[in-house]
Amino acid sequence: MTFSQEEFYFNNLDLSLEKSWELLTSGKKDRHSPLHTLAVGTVTADGTPSQRIMVLRDVDRETRMLRFNTDARVSKVADLDNGGAISILGYHPDAKVQLRLSGTARIEREGAIAEEAWEQASPYGKRCYLADPPPGSPVDAPTSGLDPAIEGQKPDAKQTAPARINFAVLLAEINRIEWLYLAHTGHRRALFFWNEKTDQWDSGWLVP
Ligand SMILES: Cc1cc2nc3c(=O)[nH]c(=O)nc-3n(C[C@H](O)[C@H](O)[C@H](O)COP(=O)(O)O)c2cc1C
Fold first, then answer.
1. Which CATH architecture has domain 3-121+166-206?
2. What does the pLDDT look like over 97-146, one tens digit per residue?
3. Residue 208, number of CB atoms within 10 A of its CB
4. Which InterPro entries match (predicted)?
């Protein structure tokens, strides 16, 4: 993109929204993208914000859905049961774009999406869900939570099968995108808000 093209893009709401989804989609596909791992924030039962890094597994622009994989026994799952509010943050240094997304999220342990996600997971990925006791449990000594017999080796399908019950997908439906573009000449900031009545993104500029 030449500077004039860049200037054209960052002064245009539609192109900036387009770019936001493009960056997320490439973040899903490219594990080297800085948007492949995102900070995902939930709110605990006592109202405390809680964030963690998660791998972006899928992006569906049509349904405004981002998918992450998770252990079904962890704290973020409990947080989402308390109302489902979610905040997702990423920064792409080459694109000079920060994306702050929010919406509602749900956990699915079963169903087509969870089944397909499980099938797509690598043996090592599946092995994480074998942790016993569950992730976050206090223990007396350092541990991976895995049976030593399965550590340090590529597990086979029979070994990872019992992990399926602990696996879930986190599906975040995005209804707000805050876009920040860093430019030498002066930053730009825009807000895109999903309008349920018109089924379209409303948009507007903000002072950066
Ligand atoms: C690079 C990286 C990628 C991670 N990816 C995931 C992920 O895709 N899903 C997940 O549940 N946790 C992932 N984690 C671990 C979480 O950050 C977190 O420690 C864990 O999920 C427990 O979080 P919770 O107790 O808040 O639910 C990842 C951590 C790092 C550092």
1. Roll (2.30)
2. 999 999 999 999 999 999 999 999 999 999 999 999 999 999 999 999 99
3. 12
4. Pyridox_Oxase_Alr4036_FMN-bd, Split_barrel_FMN-bd
Distance, CA 95 to ligand 1 centroid (Å)?
25
- Gap from CA of 52 to ligand 1 centroid (Å): 6
Give the distance (Å) from ligand 1 centre to CA of residue 163. Answer: 17
Average pLDDT, the chain: 95
Chain position carrying tokens 């973040």: 27
Q: Of ligand 1's atoms, which has the minimum distance to the CA of residue 136?
A: 25
Alpha-carbon span 115 to 95, nearest angstrom: 34
Q: Which atom of ligand 1 is nearest to the CA of 50?
A: 26
Q: How far apart are CA 171 and CA 41, in angstroms?
A: 13
Largest Cα separation within the chain, whole Å, is 60
Distance CA 183, CA 181 (A): 6
